[in-house]
Amino acid sequence: ITHANEATRGGKKFLVGLSHGTSPSGAYRYILEHWDKLSRPEQLRFTFVNSKLKRQRGLKGVTDAVAFLKTLLATGKISKDQILGRSLNRDDMEAYCDEMNHKLASYLKENEKEGLDYIFVATDSAGRVAGITRFSEAFSVEEIGCIVHDRTEKELTLTPWFIKKTKRIAFLATKAEKR
């Protein structure tokens, strides 16, 4: 909240990358509870760090990235236009990746940014971060996002090359086996 207020004070937009799953849920709940502390919430923009993995779908009673944004939308705290990539078709993962790369690159250029302003990333118990394994080919990709294989499914993730351009990174690990 502090970093968003500092960035938006001068009228600049503040781009946040949201991770799916349970690890960031505490941070998302905190933001919802303290939303009124944001001085210019209309300047916030949101996108996802990766596509939602099958094991992250259908979570009950968890404020994951989707529930967080749905709550903000339902309460009128943000508009759909504040969610980058919301209208992209996720049925064809390669086309989704190409469109997301183009959309984010255009947004960054228009707003004179090199990367995200803030990102929430988390790991699973196997050490994957945003669907990226330790020896992933994603480490050699110099694009905003790429396709990775999480177990047997194709997923979109922001690349390490792009994530490193983020101004502030919140790395979250909430379960003992993740530490």
Indicate the mean pLDDT: 85
Helix content: 25-40%
Strand order of the largest sheet: 2-1-3-6
Number of helices: 5
Could you tell me how far the N terminus lies from the C terminus, measured between alpha carbons in angstroms?
Answer: 26 Å
Low-confidence regions: none
Element-level helix/strand string: HEHEHHEEEHE
Radius of gyration: 16 Å
| Structural class designation | alpha/beta
Number of strands: 6
Instruction: Report the major sheet.
Output: 4 strands, parallel
How much beta, percentage-wise? 15-25%
Query: Which overall shape is indicated by the principal axes computed on the Cα atoms?
Result: globular
What would you note in describing this structure?
27% of the residues lie in helices and 18% in strands. The protein is of the alpha/beta class and 179 residues long. The strands form two sheets. The chain has a four-stranded parallel beta sheet. It has a two-stranded antiparallel sheet with strand order 4-5. Helix 2 (25-33) links the parallel strand 1 (14-18) and strand 2. Helix 2 (25-33) packs parallel to helix 3. The radius of gyration is 16 Å and the shape is globular. The mean pLDDT is 85.
Secondary-structure map with pairings?
Elements: H1 2-8, E1 14-18, H2 25-33, E2 44-48, H3 65-74, H4 93-110, E3 118-122, E4 145-150, E5 153-158, H5 160-163, E6 168-172
Parallel strand pairs: 1-2, 1-3, 3-6
Antiparallel strand pairs: 4-5
